[in-house]
Specification:
Length: 189
């Protein structure tokens, strides 16, 4: 494992450079997706939500809106979620230093607050756009749709597995693993 201090500084610089380059390359795509989502959902096409970040600091996450006014995921929204294109605006969160390209996904208040003991190590790093739990549960919505009680399944199966994967990620921080997770994320788009 790299020296934690140098790892974090180098990772932050890498995140800022990566987010800047991707925003330069894909700003037009984000604007087009916001316009499409605005038409599709009949509301402003950016979804904002409070999430818990590093050291339990709250921040506002940005995504392309995928749910219409009736609370249903639209066909376009389903495609955006499947392709992960709805996550592109989070590059702004990375650029602002609230998130990283790779790390545990940031949770909403109510979930992150349940972390206890060893699990709290997850909150010692910036949350990521992608990471081990993101890849492991890539098809989480499909999996939940097959369950009789999706909330119960999430609480008893998915949430504990995500915690386990994220704790292991933080305990074994490495540039090699970060590159692996980034590469696999792009390969599975």
């Amino acid at each position: 494992m790299p020296n934690k201090v140098s790892y974090r500084y180098i990772k932050r610089i890498g995140d800022a450079v990566t987010a800047s380059l991707l925003l330069i390359l894909f700003w037009w795509c984000i604007v087009v997706l916001i316009i499409i989502a605005s038409i599709d959902t009949k509301s402003y096409g950016v979804f904002k939500q409070t999430r818990i970040g590093r050291y339990k600091v709250r921040f506002t996450i940005f995504k392309i809106k995928t749910i219409n006014s009736g609370g249903k995921t639209s066909k376009i929204g389903a495609f955006l979620r499947r392709s992960k294109l709805d996550e592109l605006p989070q590059l702004l969160n990375v650029l602002q230093g609230e998130m990283s390209c790779v790390g545990p996904r940031p949770d909403i208040p109510g979930f992150a607050d349940k972390l206890k003991g060893k699990e709290e190590i997850i909150l010692s790093v910036r949350p990521g756009i992608t990471g081990p739990a993101t890849l492991y549960f890539r098809n989480e919505e499909v999996l939940l749709a097959t369950q009789q009680d999706p909330k119960q399944y999430n609480a008893t199966v998915i949430w504990p597995k995500k915690i386990s994967l994220n704790v292991k990620y933080v305990e074994e921080l490495s540039f090699k693993k970060d590159i692996y997770y980034l590469g696999n994320t792009f390969l599975k788009l």
